[in-house]
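Forwarding the complex inputs:
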Amino acid sequence: MNGGGMDTPSGRHPTSIRIHRLLLLCLVTAAFWLGGCRHGVASRPGALSWRWIPIDGDGQEEVGHPGPADRAVVLVFLGTECPIAQKMLPELDRLQRELGPQGVRFLSIYPNEGETREGIQQQRRRAGLTGEAGFDPGQRLVDRWKVTVTPEVVALAADGSLIYRGRVNDQYAALGKGRPAATRHDLREALEAFLATGMAEGERTTPVGCRILRTP
Amino acid sequence: MSPRIAIGLVLGSLGLVMGRAAEPVTFHGQIQPLVFRHCAGCHRPGGAAPFPLLTFEDAAKRAKDLADVTARRYMPPWLPAPGPHPFVDERRMGDADIALFRQWADAGAPRGDPAAAPPTPTWPDGWLLGHPDLVVRLPQPYTVPAEGRDVYRNFVLPLDLPQARHVRAWELRPHSRAAHHAFLRVDTTGEGRRLDGKDPEPGFPGMDVPSVIQAPGGHFASWQPGAAPHQYPSGLAWTLRPGTDLVLQAHLQPTGVPEPFQPELGLYFTDQPPTQQPMKLGLGSVEIDVPPGQSNVVVRDEFTLPAEVDVLGVLPHTHYLGRRIEGTAIRPDGREEPLLVIPDWDFNWQGAYRFREPVRLPEGTRLRFALTFDNTTNNVRNPFSPPRRARYGPNTTDEMAELWVQLLPRTPEGRARLDRALLERIARDTVAYSRQRLRLDPNDGTAWINLGKALLSQRRLAEAETHFRKAVEVALDLDEGHYYLGLLHRIQNRPAEARTEFQRAIQLNPNHARARGNLGFVEAESGRLPEASVHLAEALRLDPKDVLALTLLGKIRLQQGDRAAARDLFRRALVLDPKNPDALEGMLAR
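Prediction (whole assembly, two chains):
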């Protein structure tokens, strides 16, 4: 559990004084969205939002919020050139089909340098993936959530509290080092537990995949 | 040392240090040449790898991953440790070069001077050895499912060669990211086509193919992404006869999206027939039983060379629990020499290794094999968590422990001795293997047949019969079981029962050439020449190289007074076997 639903990307529990100061800062700069308020608390109960460029949109940045039916939002960080990320697509598709109707919303986020709309759409078509996808301009969501690799997931309750973050499952222990099939399905287990209990446990695993691509 | 010299040395080394500091590791300076040499074969547009690495833009954004995967020696993929006998096309990167990737990443992946960039390699659009003499393409694509366990599938590549050809090189272009490794096999019996026909999709499944579908004479013929095309030294080509199909046994890995697989195979021929055929020694064991939680279970085997040989190559094989593999030669004077050491086996990068120079070993050398299994949670490739007991078996979640050694005996006498020793081993291994398979599955018809064959070769006819009967009892559609029962009854001089069994085998598999031929013999021995002719002609249609059928049908044609047809049959037999006494006699008959 993460207390009152406040969560920081690092997972530490800040003192209330720090929270207030940072909230104030965010409000003052009128940038109370995930990507914009990058250096501290970026969500508070009922205030989960994300700024991105939806892949099917007009190329403009948009701010998204959980809808009334959304109990949880899963930020799924993906890269079209990462074999481990591609390997997870069928499992992510299955999760979306099964848990989507129960109020879990999946957002595929493509933060890597060099990603193209065509490349992403082609891969998603081949995988038969539906659902929302978008770019992360300036890799602000990556920075906000301290995402290190693709695939990496950050599952949040609608109030912004952390349900789970890390790997999709345990098939890989390192790039190129894996089992024939996963033996633990961490994301699924965390989401199912959340749907059953309503408790955002804030569990973490170490994600395995390809580093987020950016030229130093 | 004079003070002046001392100061000079200090200044000199300072200069060296400063010189080094002034020359940071850059992409165009040090990294790009390494990438071109070690990575670009696969990491190029259209290559086997998931992304290219040719340009600064490609590489710089991955600088840290490059440093990591090279440091872990995951890339470039090369499993053997350096040893006294280097292999062809080693993809191993040196420690100093690996350190450069780390330094480059730590320095922020600087570009350096583009003017210093080495020329970008070019890949001829297509085949690496020039255009092949024959290109065969899988007629229909197979689609690898998006997810699930690895797929082992055998794809028949019909050749329809009008004449025999000698293969001096081959190259596989898989045109699919799902292709992880493959073996090339030859099938002179049509069995592959039959099995392919029984399966609605292209190819037929399984790691275990029927024994008639074999690796080309004495070769491994293995392929993996990024490997150079296979080229055989002079005299070691392999021959493809008319009517032969190639069968590509492919290990395909789901990639997350459905992947079409429609490989092309390029064959390069030579007019020089092979002068020698290598032999293969299988070291290993089916006695595998690895309890959960054990990290140090070792399986061993050994063989003493009965003759002087050249070792041409090695092919290790194990699944996910195998960790360390060692193949060692112990010379008669006691000197030990590693032939192959794989410290950290990776099932996904398995393949054969050919020695750059053949390793000559004298008679009396012991070849020793040791394979260590790790069935703990520390083995991140363990298919089961928590670990489960692992035993021998053909599925990837079972285990195997093998090291194949490709040998070329130095003399004909040596070849004969080696041949005898290998046959004994094969008989021993067949019995052990079949018993093991039957322990796992008492309804494994093929295992019952193989045990029966081993007994038949020892003339233990009654026991052999029991085993063949068991085979057709547990697997009702097993044509081979009836064929071997027929053969046994022929040996026992029970023609009526032999006829029934061969007929049953043909009913189950109309293309069973040996059953047809044997049925022809039974009919001929019973004096039913017209029936015999029909079966022998059909056997020859299925297998035009069946010398026994050629000569028997020739004799029948002679008796029937059709001398022209008889002579034609004897001539065909003599092309295949120039000293065949029946055919020679038939040609001289008036």
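Chain B has four domains: 11-116, 134-270, 279-379+390-411, 434-588.
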